Amino acid sequence: MNNKMKKTAAVLVVSAALMSTGYSAFADEAAPVAPVASEAIAVHKLTDNLDVEVKSILNEHVPEGTRIGVVIRMKNNSTGIVRVPEYELRVKTSDGTEYTLQPSASNIKAVQSKANSELSYMAVIDRTDDVQLAEVNWTDVDYYVYPKKETPILNIPVAGLGWQGSDMPITDAASVKKWSDSFTIPSLTSPIQYTPVNIDKQSTDKGTVYVVQLLAYNPTDKRETIPEFSLDGKTAAKVFTGKRVEEGALVLDSKEEKYIHFAIPTDQDTELASLNLLTKESFAQAGASAAAPGEVIQYQVGRLNILLPVNGGTTALAPYTLGEAMTFDTRSDLIHPSLQVSLVELHTYDNEEEGNKIVTAKFKLNNSSDKPISIPEFQADLLNPEGYEYSGQRQTITNTPILPNSGIVVNYSFNIPLSEAGQGLGLKIVDAKTAAPYKQTIASYRVDVQKQEENTKFSVYPFKFDVSHWDVSYLFSIQTLEYSYKGKFIMDIEREPSIQVDQNFSKLQFELYDASGRLVGTSTGSFIGANRLVTGENNFTFKGTSQQFDSPLTLKVFEVFTTAGGEAKRLVTEYTK
């Protein structure tokens, strides 16, 4: 596309403050500001009552040759119904050849008063070379005289405006948008403004998918329907077709804004460079009869190219301090406004047995209202500094609501490679429902894992432990020729008030290893129930025996919780004796 094509459409550019987060940006909470003045639309007078403009031009190669399509927007300026003139619509090429296009069988015959209507025309010509279109014209042909009489009515220059298919680059400066730009869609009469908000590369059971999130805003005083359009992903060599996730009609009330999402399936190693925005056109071929209508040909025409931001990895994310209330996208309904969510623990340990690292994140959800609030089902993802994502497994929890002026904790477990240092990670809070089956980021931060605590002190929020004495004794059985083990801990336990704990809350698991690293016994301590952990003396009997005693013994203490993928745990401390 070049500047001529842009003059045929009004483009409203809206400035909106965006907080860039690498491949994502959340729009400012205020509604977009009023658009700047739009460019003049190139309108041409066809008759005294009818104005026309060229909406779309298709010029693409097909197996039969070259398909040329033209869509005309026609407006009736009078106060009565006006018939569409029976003029021929033709295109002229740069070499002077002229081709007559056939009208779509669905074209209207008359235009209502003060109304806009679109008329579609098409022809397939037997040419395999690159056809350069120079002009669209209307010609009045009188076939009832000999020789037939042709009267030129109107011609419009269109050099360089034909859409040549998905591989065609969009290079016109006015049609190329930066990631932070707000825009309306050229060629459409819709006033809805769009702002790119987030693009996320996700792995699904059907392969790799880029999910693009746009914020749609209706600046008018009446309801508007979001028109049909699509987004394609582009690399230097390939184009990947996208599709809108939301199905059915989407309507925006006056001054309302709403997210819409597009899924673009790609190859696994694909890194997109930009997006093409396309609108749909159609042409109905004439059928043999009303009972046997002809084929409807649908095609798309590129309107805008949206450049993607440079992926800054996690360095572009805002740093997070443990315990702070997180800020969420207020347009999301997932997190209740009276619910404060904060990350209170983030730990990692090397799982040498399975050859990976385990990262555990503990979130506190605090209800500051005077009514119970259901626990939101958000997901959490970790990003390494290069932007690679690791999905978290959520702790299994009950449906018990969070009581007024109370809190609850929810754990997540992540498996990451041993090569990850655990510093400079990104943490994303994700809504997996709104754009299902794809995910939508509602908050993201840069986080660092906590350092391991002293041996005698450790925390399992909301509990803090100070171990003043511990001991493991063993007993040899002459009958079985095996050793069994018992443990004794003297603890001082502090608990933060107003944090709910139920049967699904984490437990402490004590694992006893001999000098060779063999697991010889385990025991579990609960935070609730008759045998819960208490301040003072706590005694444990380890399940498991050994046939030989190999000292020194190492006692590892884990926090364990249940997820949909099984049991997750993190090392809280260890002792050697």
Question: What does it look like?
Answer:
The chain has 577 residues and is mainly beta. The protein is 1% helix and 50% strand. It contains one helix and 39 strands. It has one helix at residues 3-6, and strands at residues 18-21, 24-27, 44-45, 50-62, 65-76, 82-83, 88-93, 98-103, 110-111, 116-125, 133-142, 149-157, 176-177, 193-204, 207-217, 224-225, 230-234, 239-240, 243-244, 251-252, 257-266, 274-284, 296-307, 339-351, 356-367, 379-383, 389-391, 393-394, 406-416, 425-431, 440-447, 457-460, 463-477, 482-495, 507-513, 519-525, 536-541, 554-563, 566-576. Strands 3-4-5-10-8-7-11-12 form an eight-stranded antiparallel β-sheet, with no helix packed on it. A hairpin with a 2-residue loop joins strand 14 (193-204) and strand 15. The longest helix is centred in the N-terminal third of the chain and has 4 residues, at 3-6. The radius of gyration is 33 Å and the shape is elongated.
Unreliable sequence segments: 1-40
What number is the mean pLDDT? 88
The order of strands across the largest sheet is 3-4-5-10-8-7-11-12
- Structural classification: mainly beta
Number of strands: 39
The major pleated sheet works out as: 8 strands, antiparallel
Rg on CA atoms, Å = 33 Å
Give the N-to-C terminal Cα separation: 76 Å
DSSP helix count? 1
DSSP helix fraction: under 10%
